[in-house]
Amino acid sequence: RAKNHGRNRYSYFTADLHEQAQRRMRLISDLRAALAAQQFRVYYQPIVDLADGQVFKAEALIRWQHPALGMIEPGQFITVAEDTGLIIPIGDWVFEQALNQVNQWRCQYRPDFQISVNKSPVQIRQADKTSSGWVQHLEQRQFPGDGICIEITEGLLLNTEPGTLKKLREYRAAGIQVAIDDFGTGYSSLTYLKKFNIDYLKIDRVFIAHLETDANDQALCEAIIVMAHKLGLKVIAEGVETDEQRRILQHAGCDYAQGFFYGRPVPADEFAARWLAAGDGHSPIR
Ligand code: C2E
Ligand code: MG
Ligand code: MG
Ligand code: MG
């Protein structure tokens, strides 16, 4: 036991930084190989209409099925993908998956279905395929752009470079909708709300987590909802985990909700079976 303890202390003091650096190097080289090795998966989480409990759309969330480490969540690798530029080909791949998926689900189940795709600022600023190339590609396939919504964070819209503006205009011209993700946690400037054509505000889950007990969070949510509606935006609450949170949000006039209370992100076939195929798409726990 003493020996073990000693070893742990040794590794704590000397090996950790080295180990961290090595793990990052390995992560980068694994990440480089992962796309070709088809190790990425797209999971889908329902976004539910609070008025009737029906599934409204889905958010596409990437997962990495690592051969040795198992399923890795995006929090573990998106930053590294951004730092290395790998987010561009990975993001294009996610977008293509979502596009094929929404086409299939529209044909099979719901002609108005939509899938939300996350885009990091790095993707918007750099020339990913979703710029002119993809928009042309979409038009050629006569794809109704409103099948896709892109989720961006507030920070992107703070100091807008001409390229960012151009990109957002191209999306909109193709009919693609735009959501502000993690609303309320980024920069506090609201000027972008009047400068840009935005469709949805997604209230970050830090404002939802303590909704039952925190009067300030309740006040903030109510104010965000009123403001958004006056600006003509729809509101999605993120991270809804309890029926009480759902009830408070519904009472406050929130439009849509997403969270473990309704369902976790799942593979496409599971999503279709639970939310699209079985009758009317109503949540059993409405
Ligand atoms: P996000 O876009 O804000 O996505 C919502 C995250 O909250 C997801 O985490 C989801 O699983 C989680 N979540 C949903 N409901 C609940 C809930 O009730 N409670 C809690 N505690 N969490 C909930 P996930 O899938 O780990 O993704 C994390 C972040 O990674 C995303 O945050 C997004 O910023 C980024 N991300 C995911 N997929 C992509 C992608 O394809 N491209 C880019 N650029 N970023 C992605
Ligand atoms: Mg998102
Ligand atoms: Mg979010
Ligand atoms: Mg986020």
Would you write up a description of this structure?
This protein is of the alpha/beta class. The protein contains 10 helices and 10 strands. The chain has helices at about 1-35, 80-85, 85-110, 120-125, 130-140, 160-175, 190-195, 215-230, 245-250, 270-275; strands at about 40-50, 55-65, 70, 115-120, 150-155, 175-185, 200-205, 235, 255, 265. It has an 8-stranded mixed barrel with strand order 1-2-4-5-6-7-8-9, surrounded by 5 helices. The longest helix is centred in the first third of the chain and has 33 residues, at about 1-35. The model is unreliable at about 1-15 (pLDDT under 50). The structure holds ligand C2E and magnesium ion (3 copies). This is Diguanylate cyclase (GGDEF)-like protein/PAS domain S-box-containing protein.
Please tag this protein with its features.
286 residues; alpha/beta; 10 helices; 10 strands; 44% helix; 19% strand; disordered N terminus; binds ligand C2E; binds magnesium ion; Diguanylate cyclase (GGDEF)-like protein/PAS domain S-box-containing protein
What share of residues is helical? 40-55%
Biggest beta sheet summary = 8 strands, mixed, barrel
From the spread of the alpha carbons, the general shape counts as: globular
Named once each, the bound ligands are: ligand C2E, magnesium ion
Whole-angstrom Rg: 21 Å
Order of SSEs = HEEEHHEHHEHEHEHEHEEH
**What's the number of helices?**
10
- What is the first-to-last residue Cα distance? 53 Å
- The averaged pLDDT comes out at 87
Record field, number of beta strands: 10
Decide which structural class fits the backbone: alpha/beta
Arrangement of strands in the largest sheet: 1-2-4-5-6-7-8-9
The residue ranges in which pLDDT falls below 50 over 5 or more consecutive positions are 1-13
Strand percent estimate? 15-25%
Keywords: Membrane, Transmembrane, Transmembrane helix
Organism: Silvimonas terrae
GO molecular function: catalytic activity
Protein name: Diguanylate cyclase (GGDEF)-like protein/PAS domain S-box-containing protein
